[in-house]
Structures are given as C-alpha cells and as structure tokens.
Write the structure tokens for this entry.
Amino acid sequence: MTTPALNTDLLLFAAAAAAKVLLFLGGAMGVTALLTLAERKVSALMQDRIGPNRAAIAGLTLNGLFHPVADGLKMLFKEDFRPAAADRLLFALAPVLALAPVLTLFAFIPFGDYVMLFGYQLDLCVADPPLGLFLLLAVSGLSVYGTFLAGWASRSNFALLGALRAAAQMISYEVTLGLTLAGLMMVYGSASLQDIVRAQGALIWGWIPAWGIVTQPFAFVLFLTAAIAANKRTPFDLAEGESEIIGYFMEYSSMRFAAFMFAEFAEMLLIAALCATLFFGGWQVPFLYETGFMLPGGAALELPQWVTALMQTGAFALKTLFFCWLQLLLRWTLPRFRFDQLMSLCWRRLLPLSIANILATGAALLALR
Amino acid sequence: MISVRKVNNRPLNFLERIYLVEIARGLAVTARHFFANLLGRRSLTVPYPERRIPAAGNSASRTRHRLKARPDGSPRCVACFLCQTACPARCIAIEAAEYPGNPVEKYPASFSVDLSRCVMCGMCVEACPEDAIAMDTGELPGGAASRQELRLDKEDLLRRVPGETPARGAANRLAEGPGGER
C-alpha cells in the first residue's frame, strides 16, 4: 500500500470550503438569532410600542440587543419534556430534520462573485452545483419530514392534526414554488444559482439590469407568496397559529422547540436570500462589473477587484436584509387565512397562475428569438 | 332611539379580490408607522415600572390601597379585622393594639397589604365599617423587582389624597374630653 501524494489543490479547496461554510453559516445563524429580536422590535415600531429592551449584560441593554442570548439561555434551562408514549427516536430526530435542510440550503446561495486571495480565485459560494435550483427544491422538500414526524412521534392527537395541516400546506405550496422557478430557468437558461445571478448582470436595451423582477415580475409575487406559505409564516401560519390553533410542535419544549422556531426564522432568512438571488440580481450591483462601474452613458470608474467583490457581497447582504424586513412587515400587517382559503389559494389560484406564467414565458421567449 | 348605521357591504371589485393592491396599501400603513417611529416619533407606551402614566382623572378604577388618616395623623382603622376576613386573596394582615387609657378603640399596630396576592376586588373597602381603607390613590400596583417591594406596610398605606378633609374618630373625641368639639 502506497501513501497517496498530498494533493495541495484538494487540501486548499477543502480549507477554502470549510472557511466559507464557517463564515457564511455562522453569519446566517447569527442573523437568524437577530431576526428573532428584529421580529419583536419591528412589530413594536409598527405598533407604536417600544419593544423588548430589558435583557442586560452588566447593566448594558443596547436597546434590547441581548434578548436573543437571553431567549437562548432560557430555552436551554427549560425542562426537556417528552410525552411518555412518544416515539423516542423520532421525537428526538424531528427537530434535527426540521433544521438540517434549511441550514443545508444556505450552501447553494452565492453571496458574491469571486475574490482573488494569494493568487487563488475563491468563488464566493459554498457549493454551486449545475442543477442547484432543483437541488434547492429537493432539499427544502425534506423539511416536511421534520414537521410531520414532530406531530406523529408525539403520539398526541392535537399534534398529529397540526402536523397533517402543516404537511398538507407545505407540500401544496412546494408545487407552486417549483413551478414559479421554472420560468427563471427558461429565461436564464441555467439551473445553477451562480449562473442565474451572473446572467442577471446583463442589461436590457443597454440600461435596465436583467434582474428576475424585470424578466419575471409575476413569478416573484407567486414565489414570495408560495415561499412564505411553505415556511408556515403569517398570513399562512395555520400550522402553528400562535394565538389559538395548536400546532405540530405542541408536545415540544425547551431547546427542541427552539429548534423548530430557529428553523422557521432561518428559512425566513433563506427566503429573503433566495428572493434577492433569483429576482433581485443576487450580488449584482447595477452597472458594477469586475473592473468597476460602467454606466450606460459611457462613464466608467475603475475599482480594484476586491473592492468590487466587497461591494457585491454587501449588496447581497442589503438585499437579503430588505426581504427579511419585508417578511416581518407582511407578518405584522396581514391577518391569517383560513385553511380552506389557504388550500383554495394554492390549488385554484397560484398553481394555475404559475403554469400560465411558464406558458407566457415560453411564448415570450419564442417571440423574442 | 337606537341609531342604526347601515353598512354597505358591496362585493369586492376585481382589484380588491386579487388582494395585491390592498396588501400594498396595508404595507404602506405599517411601513409608515415603522419609519416614523424609527426616525424618532415617540411610542405610545412607556417603560412601565420606571415611568408611569397617571390614571385618567375621572377614573373610577380601584387602585393601590391607602389607609385614611385622622387629623392627628393616626389611622382611622380600628383593627376590627373585617377587611382581613373579607379578603378573598388573604393578602391583608393586621395586628391590633390598644391605645393606653382608651377603652373605646383599638388601632392597628401593623397593617400590611400584600399586593402580589391582592386581586383588586375592593371587598376590603366594602367591608370596612369605619371607611378607613380606600382604593383611590390612582396608582396602579405592580412592576416590582422583588416580592418585598409589593408588600405595603402601615407607613406605606397611611396617607391622604389631595383635597380630602380628614374625619375625626372616637379616640379623638375621647382625647379631647367632654368639652371638646363634636
């Protein structure tokens, strides 16, 4: 047996991938934790209240910035209750299955173009599979297992009913979600997210950025609606129904319950990132290219590549945060749908509309060719 | 006469049925509030225990208890225990004592109300034969950092509200003797 030669390229690739995973996933989880606070603060501001501002470290409250820490600690110290009849393995597995797909999905989101580091070209995306969009749908479809197993493993009628409701809702809206993305693939001719973002850097008639919102405005509305519904958030939060309905995680407490909540908030961030990536040019800044700004009038401003990369990543972060904020705003504006309205909206409105969108996109592409 | 307001529930028109325009209008309202408050408009609520909004002047709510005082500052309470007996939450604790040389009345050596147990029902006020306990201070109890702060002693309770004329009691009359004013 011979020792294989040390493959420097592979090692470097592994190191770079690990660094990107740590940075991006760490960042995503940090923002998710802050979103739990933002949810409460934004709602407070919208309702002319002050919002949480008590959690303090050494008397320092920073207007409530420590509340996610306090919440996490509180959850850790709560009793971890499991119903006697519950399926031990599945009951423990369900929160993991709810959280894991969402965190996995962050890997497919490109958060920048590339950056040159010590002569190496570092792609600012953890993984860019050629069929990323399909993989995205496939992995996000897995999260229904977590939801359903939570209700089923609890051996509680209420939790099971809640799980049935949630599963029906999630599966229904996954269909619309997938079909809305088909139009994008047709327009940009690729299922790789990085390719889609790069294609959005093109200009229509020399001055309009070819962002998804320009080429597929209708799909954006459908996508946002379906994504929020698949994430079980207001106005489609019947799976949980905070104030009155009993949801699938009824029997969960302590950190296991927190895992479900965290998954929901992480998915919110994911939806925001996807909206930015697919419909608002991802890391693209209008008229900013590798070499710098090139305005349609002919004016140009050359920038070093790392400045460009930094601006692009910053633009991506800003767009993502905007859509997080939009989802919070939606949540605290709209009342909840009834379950029959929810189902009718999905199967009788959104699904035909998303199919019509595909047909219209196809017709437009044919006509423009 | 009962006034009747006829609500014209017209069917939704097309733009309203597809929701999107109405959702955008709703978002505009909430976003307006969000940005107005973000840029410094004051919120309607206050950080409660530190800052309190006084109850409305005509408020008839039952608020924090007080013991009424006589002109000489002694409590009107005669330690009859009726309020303690009437209290469904058992939050009143009285210790009775006697004035030296006064066979007519007792007085409360200690009188405490445990606000952490009080249900603000007002039974103590109803029960009092001397009209000695009242719930008219206008202060809403609560928002304390410890249970001890919610325990009101005689010293906390004994006070007058502005504009109140203190009534004299049997002990005052006794102390003034037969020639004293009525």
Summary: Chain B touches chain A at residues 20, 23, 26-27, 29-31, 33-34, 37-38, 41, 43-47 (CB under 8 Å).
